[in-house]
Amino acid sequence: MPLVRVDIHRNPDPTFAKRVGEHIYAALRSCIDVPEHDNFQILTEHDAQHFVYDPQYLGIQRSDGVVFIQITISEGRSVEKKQLLFKTIAESLHTHLAVRLEDVFINLMEVKKENWSFGNGIAQYVI
């Protein structure tokens, strides 16, 4: 049920954004029990004038390698599961793709299950 949006600076590696998405999906599966095949992502690359961020907000030193991740999920996960998800995503991107931990920016949005339609104009999660 997650919808993942990833925004990055244009990357010379054409596979980079997709690989970021793969690591996010693996973390969603392992940390918050997202089922197999429940993988919906929008991966977007931007030029410098369309990619704005503060390089030191909250004392975190960000670079042009910042990765913005917005995840919309159904509500109900514990704070501990969300914290594990954030940590797992950041560490996976750092370990496998050399993304600096400081450059992993995650926004989690929770919605009620009735707010999803996966096709056919039907709210599949409404019982």
UniProtKB/TrEMBL annotation:
<dbReference type="Pfam" id="PF14552">
    <property type="entry name" value="Tautomerase_2"/>
</dbReference>
<dbReference type="InterPro" id="IPR014347">
    <property type="entry name" value="Tautomerase/MIF_sf"/>
</dbReference>
<dbReference type="InterPro" id="IPR037479">
    <property type="entry name" value="Tauto_MSAD"/>
</dbReference>
<protein>
    <submittedName>
        <fullName>4-oxalocrotonate tautomerase</fullName>
    </submittedName>
</protein>
